[in-house]
Specification:
Blueprint (H helix, E strand, L loop, with lengths): L1 H11 L9 H26 L12 H22 L4 H5 L9 H24 L14 H9 L21 H21 L8 E4 L2 E4 H23 L8
Antiparallel strand pairs: 1-2
Length: 237
């Protein structure tokens, strides 16, 4: 350190007969280092290398909306099945309708499969030229997903019978773990969710909209659970 200070003295005062004290020079040196450190941090922030928001990130309003939606719809699912007995969980209003347990299996596998679709889309190059193909606003998409009057037959990979879960507890734990990860992701991601556009069976969505679809999808089937519970033949306990 002493040699570094002496060298610094010669650089600053090459023609002086007297130098500042080593103590003063040490203070100057540390001040210069701090200045350069702040300049480097500012450069990282400007270039986005410090993990901060970039011009292509979702807005803070979009981020908050998705995070709250993820949290609220998760809590609604958990609340809808709380305290139900095995008989109530297995009850089916009709042979071709799902039980509460099957709804939870579907919610859990959909959480995983839809998120995998979104991540796969993000691994592809951004394709903002496809944005005109999107026919849904965020609000329209959510309303469509949560509208139970619009019946849709799910794909085989999303059918409860084709899920890997052995119990409702296992399915619920999978859902809760995945949803916690997704909430953390949406709160912190700097990825360009809006300009990665993917094609779904019903049309094109950007990856942010797919996040909204995931949360509203669990709301859709929470409503289905409530319909099962409202059936006149639903077990009392």
């Amino acid at each position: 350190m002493k040699h570094e200070i002496l060298l610094y003295l010669f650089v600053l005062f090459p023609t002086c007969d007297s130098f500042p004290t080593i103590e003063l020079t040490t203070k100057i040196l540390y001040m210069r280092r701090s200045k350069y450190g702040y300049l480097l941090l500012a450069l990282l922030v400007i270039t986005g290398l410090a993990g901060t928001l970039t011009p292509t990130s979702i807005t803070s309003k979009e981020r908050k909306f998705a995070a709250v939606s993820f949290k609220d719809t998760k809590n609604d699912v958990i609340k809808s099945i709380k305290g139900l007995s095995p008989a109530q969980l297995d009850f089916k209003p009709a042979p071709d309708r799902w039980s509460v347990k099957e709804c939870v299996y579907h919610i859990a596998i959909s959480e995983k499969n839809l998120w995998d679709m979104m991540q796969a889309g993000l691994k592809q190059p951004a394709n903002p030229e496809k944005r005109p193909e999107i026919k849904w606003t965020d609000d329209q998409l959510i309303k469509r997903m949560e509208d139970r009057s619009n019946k849709v037959k799910t794909k085989a990979a999303f059918e409860p019978v084709n899920t890997p879960y052995k119990s409702i507890d296992e399915a619920l734990e999978s859902f809760k773990t995945a949803r916690a990860e997704h909430i953390k992701y949406i709160k912190n991601t700097t990825e360009d969710l809006r300009n990665h556009v993917i094609q779904m069976s019903f049309g094109w969505l950007d990856c942010y909209q797919l996040c909204l679809m995931i949360s509203s999808h669990s709301n859709r089937h929470m409503q289905q659970i409530e319909e099962v519970k409202a059936d006149p033949n639903f077990p009392a306990r």
